[in-house]
Amino acid sequence: MSQRPNRHTTQKNHMTALAEKVATPAPAIDDTKAYRQALGCFGTGVTVVSTRWNDADWAMTCNSFASVSLNPRLVLWSIQKTASSFDAFMSADGFCVSILSAEQRALAMQFARGPISERFDGVSATRQPNGILRLSDGAAWFECKRYQTVDAGDHVILIGQVADFAHQDADALSFWRSQFGTFEGQAVLA
Question: What CATH number is attached to the domain comprising 113?
Answer without folding.
Answer: 2.30.110.10
